[in-house]
Specification:
The protein is built from twelve helices and eleven strands. The chain has 290 residues and is of the alpha+beta class. It has a single domain, classed as Glutaredoxin. The strands form four sheets. Strands 7-6-5-10-11 form a five-stranded mixed β-sheet. A two-stranded antiparallel sheet has the order 1-2. A two-stranded antiparallel ribbon has the order 3-4. A hairpin with a 5-residue loop joins β10 and β11.
Length: 290
């Protein structure tokens, strides 16, 4: 990450703190669109326990350990220790206030959820090729990830773990698509550093994210703070909107129905790949029984 940001040690720690949001302040008050318990592991034994009420779309997913969320939590704890308290505490207060401001918009309740139809889209990947949801669904269920951008270390951890889980996702019958508002040349960084093999799509102006109900305007306090960390959203996204998508995960069945969703204003909270695979395996089993 140091090479990516090109900042001082303190600034890098602050950049990681941006991804912590409110988690360090109120880990006991997690809120997300499907109230999933965090922590997970990309292992076969943790991908088999998923129970779903298809009438209510209520998923029961077995808690797992040492997965993406645990990795993120350890990452954050280490970075927090590198920031002096006199600088960390005011920053945390700014982040908490900004988080509360976004949450107050009701974005979590407005976002598309399980049982609803996924909006259709066609976007371009890093090579300029068009990728459509309908074409992907013709081959099987789709795992759709909305992330903030390559400047976000939490997103980078999540995307790396999704690459590691890609084989399991495909074995369960799914395919993986990720979307952010960043320009294609920014996404190309993943090809160079992470060897990402799934599509990274550019959603210019957050139009598709808006269709999913995920877009928010960055609070003014963060619009002032981000540039001090070397994060120039207008340059990265190619517009002046200062909008971002709420980091979210969707598993979409072949008929276009959202089978499972996970989203959280506290963007340090991310869906576990093991849970994604468990959902896909349950969909596969239900279809096989018909």
């Amino acid at each position: 990450m140091m090479k990516r940001f090109g900042l001082s040690t303190l600034a890098i720690g602050a950049a990681f703190l941006l991804s912590m949001s409110i988690a360090a302040c109120s880990s006991e008050e997690e809120t997300n669109t499907d109230k999933e318990n965090t922590a997970g592991e990309n292992t076969p034994e943790n991908t088999e326990q998923a129970k779903h009420d298809w009438a209510t779309h209520d998923w029961k997913l077995a808690p797992v350990e040492n997965g993406t969320q645990a990795k993120i939590n350890m990452q954050m704890a280490g970075m927090m220790e590198s920031i002096p308290a006199e600088e960390r505490d005011p920053m945390m207060a700014t982040m908490k206030s900004a988080n509360d401001e976004v949450k107050a918009t009701g974005i979590e309740s407005k976002a598309k959820k399980a049982g609803e139809m996924a909006p259709a889209f066609t976007l371009k990947d890093t090579k300029g090729s068009e990728v459509s949801l309908s074409d992907a669904l013709a081959k099987g269920p789709v795992v759709l990830i909305f992330f903030r951008g390559s400047w976000c270390p939490i997103c980078n951890t999540q995307l790396a773990d999704l690459e590691a889980a890609k084989v399991d996702i495909e074995k369960a019958g799914g395919s993986l698509i990720t979307i952010s508002p960043e320009l294609a040349d920014q996404h190309a960084w993943y090809d160079e550093n992470f060897a990402i093999s799934y599509p990274l799509l550019t959603d210019s102006g957050n139009k598709v994210a808006s269709d999913f109900g995920l877009v928010f305007t960055l609070p003014e306090s963060l619009q002032t703070l981000y540039p001090s960390f070397g994060i120039d959203l207008p340059a990265r996204n190619g517009d002046q909107s200062m909008t971002l998508p709420m980091a979210s995960t969707y598993v979409i069945d072949q008929d276009g129905t959202i089978a499972w969703s996970y989203g959280n204003v506290d963007y340090v909270q991310r869906a576990e790949p093991a849970h994604i695979v468990a959902v896909l395996n349950e969909i596969k089993a239900v279809h096989a029984a018909k």
